[in-house]
Amino acid sequence: MSSMIRKIGFLGAMAMFLLMSFGVAWAASQSERAIELGKKYKGTTLTLLYEGIQAGAIKTYAPNWEKVTGMKIKVVETPFEELVQKAITEHQAGTGAFDIMLTGYQWVPDYVAAGMLEPIDKYIDKHMTKEDLEDITPGHRISMMYYDGKTWGMPADGDLFILYYRKDLFDDPQNKQAFLDQYGHELAPPKTWDEYNQIGQFFTDRYKGQIYGAAGQRGPGQAFFYFAQVYQGWGGQWFDPDSMKPLINGELGVKALEQLKKELAFGPPGMEKWGAVELWSAFLEGKVGMLYSFPPIGRFSEAAGGEDIYPTWLPMTKIKGKVDYALLPGPSAHLATPWIWGISSNSKHKDAAFAFEMWFTSPEVSIQVCTQPNSLIDPHRFSHYESEHYQNLWPNAKNYLAVLREANKYATMDIKVLGGTEYQDAVDRAVTAVMGGADIQKALDEAAQKMEDITNRFGRENVKKSYAAYLQLQEDLKRVTR
Amino acid sequence: MTIQTDAPTRKRVKRWRQRNLGFFMVLPAALVLLAVGIFPLIYSIGISFLRWEAKIPGRPFVWFENYASILSNMEFWHSLKITAILVGIAVSIEFCIGLWLAVLVLNSGHAKRIFMPIFMLPVMMVPVVVGFTWRMLWDPLYGPINQILGWLVGHQVTISWLTNASTALPAILVTEVWQWTPFMFLVLLAGLSAVNPELQEAAAIDGASEWKTFWAVTLPVIRPVVLVAILFRVIDVIKIFDIVYVTTGGGPGYATQPVTYYLYRTGARFFRMGYTAAGSWVLLILVACLVAYLVHRVGED
Predict the structure, then answer these.
(1) pTM score, two decimals?
(2) Is residue A411 in some structural domain?
(3) Cβ atoms A410, A390 nearer than 8 A
């Protein structure tokens, strides 16, 4: 009897111990759980395919992971334009060279079709909590993680377009009066694209080329995002969901390209070829009155976190304390290629890769990454927007975060559809052609024809199904955020 | 016990060795060449009959579908037209300037020794570096070309050379001509140096003017050299890639996209392997026809 009691007591104690362990484990933070998981793969080397200009953050934080888990992290850097190429080439060759691939969320359908990505639902179910996921803002979570009913990667970035403007110029009493006299309304952040054009032209004229009213990126590979910002902001869609006929060459597409073309008139010379570096450099040197672009420019313009680790590839900011933020006309905010971390289907270390992904994208680590002075990673979690550290990073940081958070509600997505990388290229080429002097309607008709050819190649029904999934994501996004 | 071979056998072995030793020495290199040179060619023929795309499952055999598809693609023909323009204009200008410089330098004595290395510098540069250098020179705000034009016209010039459809192709042409004219110069100078001066003296005695002598005597003599130089340059310009990649990326739109860049995009960007292989073969056949014609002309001479 006593042995029976002892046995029951022992089993009870074991059960209590297991329950407590389980409770402790579950109560631990995402990063702590990821570390526990990572320790199981001590000695494993993970290889990451990463955009070179983004690699600073991973190189800074990977040693912390290596120290606590005993794993090794190797980063293969490549330029943005060659990320897809490199990923597909290695997959085609079946080398298994990469365990984790930095992936633009709109590339997911193409990567899935090529069999390159491992769905991560089973890992999420096993290792993550509902709270972990709900910390990611819906705009990012819905747009970036899912496609065709599965989860393909954890968001590691949050590129939403908002307006960055020089409040010193906007608040200048003489500028205000002159603008009021000229246009009959107050000088304030634009609520429509017509107002945007008026303000742009006003500053360019007023400062006689010393400061240009507004600027943007029109270089190859970047022009698409600017078209998408305006076109989708006006409610433009890429295809007719029934026939899958492209819609970009309709009235809205023409109007959107006319808008982009108008911006050249008051923008700096050579803007047609600008990428982010040229645009940001001009803004940081105080030569541009307002712009819409990727969020890191908000931090860079304040040299947030210290000038000693400021990006070496940008001029030191001359506009510290002079920048404010607003939603773009619409309001709408294009979600321009924020990154997810995709796990390669050829990886031999998928579990270890997920552990590292879970750690790096955790609230605890990602807040450090996205507030690092030279980081290109933007806020994409509620805990980021609410972080006291981030809100106090510079005097106006609270407003920056508030506007970005608000922009989530109006997020529009890249063409996250089967063949998306090619559709995007067709539109991008049309925009650069128009910026180079081509006729708008003709360029858009050509792009629409190319989109038709792409659809025919991939199979109309296949693309239609994929596009339906994309539209569903857009609907989910609207339902949850607004 | 020892085995003795008779003298005739030894001789036969020796003769066989003499005849075939060279063959066996060359065999490994020949096999490597076959593996890296011929095999990919044959393999690419095979691929050109498959619908092989990274983003579409399966690799079905589709006969000549890829060839039909590329021959009916307007972007392919547009790219071919851009290549033809580049070849026609660049090679013509390079030939004219190269010949002019060669004639100038031919009898310049010591000056020749000074100018030769200077002229050769652009040829020695890597095309990507040339592309980056000229991209900076063409820059609308900070580039020296607009600066100089500004001094000439008396106000700021901000022409966006590389992003305007009407100026981007001429900008590439200038870059290409700058880099490769010295090659034309060098080959033509070698040809001119080899002309027997007695021929020119004889023409002069007969009362021919300098221009007439050059046109009727010198040029026909160096004709084979001219054709070889043109042949080399034509093949080279057809393969133009690096400068376009760095300066315009084929844009704005498709305004400066040569056929090599088009095939790069379909193959390396969009992973349409079968289609790109077919395109490469179509291009190879066109180039082979052109080269065969030029080689035939050289042979005639």
Answers:
(1) 0.88
(2) no
(3) no
pLDDT digits (tens, 9 = 90+) for B195-206: 988 988 898 888
Domains of chain B from N-terminus onward? 68-300 (1.10.3720.10)
* Residue showing tokens 């996250």: A416
Which residue of chain A has the CA closest to B269? Answer: A85
- Contact present, A120 and A152 (Cβ < 8 Å): yes
Structure-token pair, residue B67: 């060839």
- Cis? peptide before B252, omega within 30° of 0: yes
State the total domains in chain A: 1
Among partner residues A220, A433, A458, which is closest to B249 by beta-carbon distance? A220
pLDDT of residue B114: 82
Residue from B246, B270, B272 whose CB has the most chain A CBs within 10 Å, to mutate: B270
pLDDT at res. A1: 45
Q: What CATH number does residue A65 fall under?
A: 3.40.190.10
Residues with Cβ within 8 Å of residue B123, at least 6 apart in sequence: B179, B180, B182, B183, B186
CB contact under 8 A, B57 and A422: no
Tens of pLDDT, residue by residue over B183-199, are 999 999 999 999 988 98
> Is A281 within the bounds of a domain?
no
In a domain, A139, yes or no: yes
Contacts of A450 in chain B (CB under 8 A): 75
- A422 to chain B: which residues are within 8 Å by CB? 270
ipTM: 0.85
How far is Cα B289 from Cα B36, in angstroms, rounded to an integer?
24
Q: Can you say whether the dihedral through the CA atoms of A105, A108, A109, A111 is positive or negative?
A: positive
Contacts of B57 in chain A (CB under 8 A): 113, 115
Residue B4 has pLDDT above 90, yes or no: no
Instruction: Residue A349: give the domain boundaries.
Output: 30-156+339-377
Q: Quick check: B177 and B90 in contact, CB under 8 A?
A: yes
Quick check: B277 and A93 in contact, CB under 8 A? no
* Nearest chain B CA: its distance from A389 CA (Å): 40
Q: What is the mean pLDDT of residues A337-355?
A: 95
